[in-house]
Specification:
Layout (H helix, E strand, L loop, with lengths): L1 H13 L2 H22 L7 H19 L4 H5 L3 H5 L5 H23 L15 H26 L5 H21 L6 H10 L1 H9 L5 H26 L2
Helix pairs in contact: 1-6, 2-3, 2-6, 3-7, 3-8, 6-7, 6-11, 7-8, 7-10, 7-11
């Protein structure tokens, strides 16, 4: 598992993908921070983190599209499937490689917060940490989703486009519920909404149910990825 993790992490910077992801992420984060915080003269980071969350529509597919599709295209998947590593170990290694790059870049982008200290007042640190945790958890769920969709095809473009569509659907679920008259259906859809779950953290509240929700989403998609690989191993 460790060898696959290191290989995948190194692969991000052998190809342009890692540099493009980091560069685009930091540029977008800087622009969002300037527009939502500096120009507004506020220490509230709620809008900033919401914008960052929306940017995952493009950023996460860029990070995950190649993880399994490239293995199939280059015909190296069979080497992985027959290696002395469990399927769970293989999937988790790729997941942690993507999540490590994502998390590290997100933490680096937090250096933007130094620019508002003293000028507009102090940041509410507990609220900021809760919001940061929510973004990390949401990113983990989307990384797992992207890895699953990457395992279904050998075409990176298809993996990216399906991931974009799925993330848009998961984020947009909360916005369409207001127009649903059926109360039971509206409440059910809101419960599954990724954006609605994030709002709990955006208010600075640590919600165990929301945490469990994001972890469950990640687990389900990683589990499905293992099942896809298991089916191909014995095909």
């Amino acid at each position: 598992m460790g060898a696959i993790y290191r290989r995948e992490l190194r692969a991000y910077f052998i190809s342009p993908v890692g540099y493009v992801f980091v560069g685009v992420f930091l540029c977008l984060a800087g622009a969002f921070f300037a527009l939502s915080t500096l120009y507004s003269g506020t220490t509230s980071l709620s809008s900033y983190f919401t914008y960052v969350l929306m940017s995952f529509v493009v950023l996460i597919p860029l990070l995950t599209m190649r993880l399994f599709s490239e293995e199939r295209k280059s015909r190296t998947e069979q080497l992985l499937l027959t290696s002395p590593v469990s399927l769970w170990g293989m999937v988790m290694a790729k997941f942690f490689a993507a999540f490590t790059l994502f998390g590290a870049t997100l933490l680096v982008s937090c250096l933007n917060f130094l620019f508002i200290k003293g000028e507009y007042g102090a940041i509410n640190v507990p609220v900021m940490l809760a919001q940061l945790l929510g973004v990390l958890l949401c990113g983990a769920a989307f990384c797992a989703l992207g890895i699953f969709l990457s395992s279904l095809t050998e075409n990176q473009l298809i993996a990216a486009l399906t991931s974009i569509g799925a993330i848009v659907a998961m984020l947009g679920l909360g916005f369409i519920t207001s127009g649903i008259e059926n109360t039971a259906l509206r409440v059910t859809l809101k419960w599954f909404s990724v954006s609605d779950r994030f709002y709990t953290f955006s208010y600075g509240l640590f919600d165990f149910v929301s945490l469990f929700y994001y972890v469950s989403i990640a687990f389900v998609f990683l589990f499905l990825t293992v099942r896809v690989l298991e089916k191909r191993r014995w095909a």
